[in-house]
Amino acid sequence: xxxxxxxxxxxxxxxxxxxxxxxxxxxxxxxxxxxxxxxxxxxxxxxxxxxxxxxxxxxxxxxxxxxxxxxxxxxxxxxxxxxxxxxxxxxxxxxxxxxxxxxxxxxxxxxxxxxxxxxxxxxxxxxxxxxxxxxxxxxxxxxxxxxxxxxxxxxxxxxxxxxxxxxxxxxxxxxxxxxxxxxxxxxxxxxxxxxxxxxxxxxxxxxxxxxxxxxxxxxxxxxxxxxxxxxxxxxxxxxxxxxxxxxxxxxxxxxxxxxxxxxxxxxxxxxxxxxxxxx
Length: 279
Fold this sequence. Notes:
The protein is of the alpha/beta class. The protein has helices at 43-54, 74-81, 100-119, 139-148, 192-201, 209-219, 251-271, and strands spanning 34-38, 61-65, 124-128, 131-133, 155-157, 161-162, 176-179, 182-183, 187-190, 226-229, 234-236.
């Protein structure tokens, strides 16, 4: 980005104070620190996720105070995004365009990655506060997935929305398959090594965090595999309006442009002989 060193923006990510007490034992029978991104004033959403996940055995949740993008000053936006920073207050024109709420979401995830690296926890689950048990949720299968992960499984999504079939078909009898492009950062498990990799490859914010992670998964697919659980264990609660949603100004054009990006990614993966899902 002109005028900004490749990783200088990381110095402007707010430090996140997460009140983790070291107890990560879930009622499902495994240890997994589970960090929920939640805006401090949205106590309703914190109460909702605590209730619905607690009811299925995910009983140890830790609240991470989300960054409120609307409170970011023009100076902060410029430090993060360069001279174009304040322009993100305008109506977005495509699916990748950043908005203040999207920057807040982006910074919240990055701040958690930095926290995970600083504390060297073996693996954490990062949740947004609209995550809830999916139609295929099964506590025993969740425990099996967690128990089967190796230290090399650095990024695993117990739930995500796969875009354009950009993921490998699951193999018979396996819970995990490769993921290349997705929508929604409402639930993922990540290791310190995974956090370091993303921190070293994510560029200064130029699109929503899920699209930036997906860009890394595509560009670094030979070096950094990510996995999704099939069928998903967790899903977003569509009845909750996203705190990051801002209507687009040119939705038809935006859909077409995103479709071209997905088609190009799909063509590249198929050319490598990858066993993709149907589009």
